[in-house]
Amino acid sequence: MAIERRPLRDQIRDEVLARLRRGDFPAGQDVNEARLAADLGVSRTPLREALIALEIEGLIQSRPGKGFRFAPVSPKEYRELCPVVAALEALALESSDPEYLARTAPKLLTMATEFDVSVASQAEIEQRDDEWHDLLLGGCRNERLMDLLTTVKASLRRYVHVVIDDETEISRSAGEHKLIAERLISGDLAGAVEALKANWTSGTERVLEKLTRES
C-alpha cells in the first residue's frame, strides 16, 4: 500500500473502504485483524484505529470478546438509508452554483447517454455512477453537507452488489440520470431535484425484495 503524507489510520481506512466497495469483504464477515494487518503491511494499532473510524460510520461492528466484523446488510437499513441520501443530495443540488450547473449539465447528459451498461463490469458501473453524482454535486460549496453525504453514502455502498446485479435497476437509473441532466439544461432546477430524489427512491421496493430473499 502506497504511503502518503496523511495519518496512517486514514490511509488504512480508505483502503479498507475501497476493498469493501469492491466486495472483498462479505457483509457480516468477521475481521481477521492479524491477516488484514499483514496484507496491508501495517501494525494492528493503526488498523484498529481505522476500524474504529469505520465503526463510527456504521460499516464495521465491534462485539465484546469477539472483535470486529463487517456490518451485515438488512432490508430495514436500506429502507432507511435511501430517503436520507435522496434528501441530502437534493439539498446539495439546490445549494449548487447555478453557473456551475449550467456549464455541467451537457456533460452530465453525455455521460448518461454514452454509458453502455450491457458491456460494463460491476466495478465500472459503480465507478461511472460515482463519477456522475460527484460531477452533478460538484457545485455545492457546503462542506459540512458534503461530508455528511459522504459518510451516509458509505453505508449505502454495502448494498451496491444488490443494485448492480439487477439490470432493470441499472437501466432505470441511467434513464433517470438523463432526465436530471435534461431538466438542468432546460433550467428546471426544481424538476431536476425531484428527479434526483426519485433516482434514489424509485427502485427501493425491488431491491428490498431481493434483500429479503437473500436474508
UniProtKB/TrEMBL annotation:
Q: Single GO molecular-function term?
A: DNA-binding transcription factor activity
Q: Show the CDD domains listed in the entry.
A: WHTH_GntR
Does Hydrolase show up as a keyword for this record? no
- The record places domain HTH gntR-type at 6-73
Stored Gene3D superfamilies? GntR ligand-binding domain-like (1.20.120.530), Winged helix-like DNA-binding domain superfamily/Winged helix DNA-binding domain (1.10.10.10)
The source's domain of life comes to Bacteria
- What InterPro entries does this protein map onto? GntR_C, TF_FadR/GntR_C, Tscrpt_reg_HTH_GntR, WH-like_DNA-bd_sf, WH_DNA-bd_sf
Identify the keywords attached in UniProt to this record, alphabetized.
Answer: DNA-binding, Transcription, Transcription regulation
List the protein's name: GntR family transcriptional regulator
**What is the species listed in this Swiss-Prot or TrEMBL entry?**
Actinorhabdospora filicis
